Fold this sequence. Notes:
Elements: H1 2-12, H2 16-46, H3 68-103, H4 106-117, H5 123-134, H6 138-157
Amino acid sequence: MTAVLGTDITWKYVDRRAAAINALRDFSTMQTIIDTTDDDLKALAEDIPTVSSPRLDGMPGGGFNPHGSEDRIMAHLERIDNRQRRYLQARDYMDWFLPAWAALSDDERWMLEVCYLGEDTMQTDAIIQIGDRFHIERSSAYKRRAKALEHLALLLYGR
């Protein structure tokens, strides 16, 4: 009973509207990660460092580090691991976000795209576009946008 109560209390203080806006704004980043990771991983695989051969003249190189080659290989493997982890996070995001996005009406998706997914979108310009498209005044456009955002937040986070 306390676990359920704790969950209810936690959700009470989450700003779902702000979280939904942040999720919308992360969409293009997540899509870019998914679109570019394969090429990034191929480039990293082609550029993997190797263990260097010892110098035959017996002289150590400047700033000699006996584990330098291993350190470079480990750093490279960490970059690959980070890219893979980032890709998996982006896939998880898409698996969570896209069903909610698909459940919105075409008009709701359009409004949210105009308001939150555009390049350098000014909110005032977006509201004017909404008003023009639906032939409504500015206050009604704000209300429609708020309703669409609330619907997305409900789909993403529940009540």
